[in-house]
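Lay summary. Proteins are chains of building blocks that fold into shapes, and those shapes determine what they do. In this project we predict the shape from the chain. Here is one chain we studied, written as its sequence of building blocks.
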Amino acid sequence: MKDLLRTQDLSRDDIEMLLATATEFASNPLRSRDALAHKSVAIYMTKPSTRTRLASETAVAHLGGTPIFLRGDDLQLGRGETIADTARIISGYCDAMIVRTFAQSDVDELGAHASIPVINALTDVDHPTQLLADWLTIRENFGSDITGRKFVYLGDGNNMSHAWLIMGAIMGAHVVAATPEGSWSPDSKVIAQAQSIAAKTGGTVEVVHDPEVASRGASVLYTDVWMSMGDPEAERAAKMAALSPYAINGHLMGLAAKDSIFMHCLPAHRGEEVAADVIDGPRSVIWRQAFHRRTTIQAILYHASRGELKGN
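And here is the predicted shape, written in a compact code that computers can read:
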């Protein structure tokens, strides 16, 4: 598998390999300091970023490579050059490409025409690199035996909810998305796909609309911002009203398992999707999650550059 374009591209074996390597990079970041020696990685982002940019540039540097950061207006794409031509040009200069943008179709097209690995670092429908960091954090807290555990995402049925369901299904986990009905539910095609994967792995995929039912006995309560980049401001009031019951507060954390943790992909808006005393409290693991953005991207680059991702 040349590229990591979607969470569903990863096999369970790929994930286990990436998590094992990322664990090594967590304790010894320079373990493979020559893996990308004399090589460069293009980091193309049309969406603002804190964690993804820092994680990507640091990961490349720790592997001995040179990161080349490109904003949307740095390339000729804005003047009509095609994505296919851009992919071919970047392939001639760089050895991999990390992309954070809006349309999934743009990432798919880059992957189709580039001769180098293309890694999806976020689109409007998926976020595979984040989920690898999430699952490494989950494994650090609960180990590899997740029998009887429930992992719950609450809030907007966005790209994070999609990736959460798909990754959980691949891992054979019991994963839940608790969202409002209607416009802010996960895409029905993604739900069906996750359920199809879970049927093969022994996992369980649920989409529910009662945050208390979802939270009861959960090992993880996870959320994301309610207004994502690109969401129309005209929808803000209605969206906030619909999502307010899904805000993670002390009450919902009290319904979760005694050893439960709180997770958030950040940035966070305290007082909206999460209460300050939860995100800043003792059960929050958000900083470890953010740390693992680097370790897991480093692992992806390491194995993708060696052609070791097999896919499904």
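What the prediction tells us: Residues 9 and 55 are 22 Å apart (CA to CA).
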